[in-house]
Structure formats: C-alpha cells, structure tokens
Amino acid sequence: MQRFVDQIQQPLSSAASGTVFVEFVVNADGSVSDLVVLKGLGLEADQEAVRIVSSMPNWVPGTVNGKPVSVKFVLPISFDAT
Fold it and tell me: How far apart are the C-alpha atoms of 21 and 37, rounded to whole Å?
C-alpha cells in the first residue's frame, strides 16, 4: 500500500491533512469498481485518494465455498500535508 501512497502526483494543500475513506467493490475477478468517497477532506484529496485506489493492481477477491465473490471494502487513506 505504501508504494501507492508514494505515488501521490501533486502536492496537497495544508487543508488536506487527515483521512479520506474510500468505499469500493472488489469484484470476483479482483478488479475494483463502484468507488465512493464516504468521508473526504476536500476535492483535491478526495480525487487523489480515488486515483490511488483506481491505479492499484487487482485485489484478491473474497470467497464463499471456495468460489470467488464480490465484496465491499472501505479503505482509509491518510494524508499529511506537513
């Protein structure tokens, strides 16, 4: 996860210190969809959090009875503008 946080493309304003909570679905094939910012810090940080999650490689999906299934996940992404 840290390697994706290190890829933040633009400096964020000092108002962007805190945590953005991003909800998304990990599909049965491991792809990510349906991203929603549940609690944000402002447009700049929220967009960057969504970009970070969108650029991640496929996740390992959940399983039920040994078969892959889609699961909803909430990921906190912390920003420290200092």
Answer: 6
Specify the CATH number for 2-11+18-79; select among 3.30.2420, 3.40.720, 3.40.50, 1.10.10.
3.30.2420
- pLDDT (tens digit per residue) in 13-45: 555 689 999 999 999 999 999 999 999 999 999
Alpha-carbon distance 21 to 27, whole Å? 19
For residue 65, which phi and psi values (nearest 5 degrees)? 55, 40
Q: Identify the bridge partners of residue 24 per DSSP, sorted by sequence position.
A: 73
Phi, psi of 74 (to 5 degrees): -120, 125
